[in-house]
Amino acid sequence: MNTELDPRLLSLLVCPVTKGPLTYDRDTQELISPRAKLAFPIRDGIPIMLPEEARQIEG
Fold first, then answer.
1. Distances (CA, A) of 31 to 2, 52
2. What percent of the chain shows pLDDT beyond 90?
3. What is the DSSP letter of 7?
4. Sorted alphabetically, which Pfam families does this protein's record hold (predicted)?
């Protein structure tokens, strides 16, 4: 089930590792931190901002 992330929420969230900006990947339902190379999952519309829950990404 893909749900939209509230743009206001996205504007408030930062990466817990780098404190940098996040981008929303609608297809994978994740918040991406390019600097940390981490993807944080969104479950039932709730971003899970724990580094141990994130997956490593390439690039």
1. 13, 14
2. 78
3. H
4. Trm112p
